[in-house]
Amino acid sequence: MRRSLLFLPGNTPNMLINGSCLGSDAVIFDLEDAVSPAEKDAARILVRNTMTYMDFRGCETIVRINGIDTPYWQEDLDEVMPCRPNLILLPKTGTAEDIRTADAYMARVEERLGLAPYTVGLVALIETALGVENAFAVASASPRVTALFLGAEDLTADLQCKRTKEGREIEYARTRLVVAARAAGVEVYDTPFTDVNDDEGIEVDALHAKALGFTGKASISPRHVEVINRVFSPSQGDIDYAYEVMEAIRLGKEQGKGAVALRGKMIDAPIVARAQRTIAMARELGLGREEA
Amino acid sequence: MTEIVRSASAGTMESSDVYVEIEPGEGGIELRLESVVKGQFGPAIEEVVREVLGQWGVENARVSVRDRGALDCVIRSRVETAVKRGRGNG
Predict the structure, then answer these.
(1) Does position A278 have pLDDT exceeding 70, yes or no?
(2) A4-9 vs A265-266, strand pairing mode
(3) What is the pLDDT at residue A185?
(4) pTM (2 decimals)?
(5) How confident is the model at residue A291 (pLDDT cuts 50, 70, 90)?
(6) A35 contacts in B (CB within 8 Å)?
């Protein structure tokens, strides 16, 4: 379950060491944009030691490495993969070939470390027009890809348009990524809302992303984590309805009914699938009911 | 053995960080420590610094450590980075 993914600058100790206490489902140690070229070596070592010595139980670890068009990305992987982060976030993924390049190197590192293949997953950060257009091919390029991730700041620069709070300029990219990810059977995360002081704005933005089908949303500020977690969690009403659906299905089967209705609506396979997902998430959040 | 051939530094003076400077030296490790928590944790910090220097095979160097309340893993990181920046092969 990754409702919230919080970016932490890779060379800033006072952010890194508190990362696991900030309430996000995952933290993203950033070796890319948050770190100047002269400090890449220091950040790699600091992130590696933070993962080695600090306790991140209950919080997944993701490392945003530098792009494969830079001289840094292989050293990034060499340094952090022994710590077995849950995922690597690959910036500026534009094509399936980019994924295959990163995947092949990660496979070699895993072999060298004696890790099982695909121990460390890969998330494709889509932040160029090319990446948006190739989203499905990127998501399908390797079994290592577990999600697509929209990066709107670089994308709008590439699109030569202004980034706004309303986000009309990224609507196509958002819907395209959700469709591509779902078609490929992977998850999809929304771009951060960058005004850290706009509490209303983050809620509106997160609700919109959830409504479009995103799995979760990234954040650059701990202030946004609570709102994102709330928006991407099932409500008590959702959970109650999901249990009603499953109970109706159970009763229908008992009574030998071919079709089952609840609250005047036919319950079909997609409704059951959604109910099952809601119950699974409720259980993860400790909101599930005890089985009879 | 790792030889320190040039002056190098790592870290910052920000809260929770530590600024480490390393220079070529002779006759062992000459360590100077400045810390807001020196009274409580000075010996522990010094032990960590010497341990990391030992791990990287540094036997001779002058090392200055200005601590701003860094945790063990941060001290380890900055010392390692300073060593790698100051050593002979890169």
Answers:
(1) yes
(2) unpaired
(3) 96
(4) 0.92
(5) low
(6) none
DSSP summary character for residue A290: P
Which pLDDT does position B89 carry in this prediction? Answer: 65
- Tens of pLDDT, residue by residue over A5-63, are 999 999 999 999 888 888 999 999 999 999 999 999 999 999 999 999 998 888 999 99
Give the integer Cα–Cα distance in Å for B54 and B63: 13
The residue among A133, A196, A134, A119 whose CA lies nearest residue A165 is A196
State whether B11 and A42 contact (CB < 8 Å). yes
The distance of Cα B45 from the centroid of its chain, to the nearest Å, equals: 10
Is the minimum CB–CB distance between A52 and chain B shorter than 8 Å?
yes
Question: Which residues of chain B does A49 touch, with a Cβ-Cβ cutoff of 8 Å?
Answer: 73-74, 76-77, 80
B78: which chain A residues are within 8 Å (Cβ-Cβ)?
42, 46
**Which residues neighbour B46 within 8 Å (Cβ) at sequence distance 6 or greater?**
B31, B33
Superfamily classification of domain A4-231 = Phosphoenolpyruvate-binding domains (3.20.20.60)
Residues A216-231: tens digit of each pLDDT = 999 999 999 999 999 9
Alpha carbon of residue A288 to chain centroid: 23
Fold classification of B8-86 (topology level):
Ribosomal Protein S5; domain 2 (3.30.230)
> Quick check: A227 and A206 in contact, CB under 8 A?
yes
Domain boundaries, given as residue ranges, for chain A: 4-231, 236-284
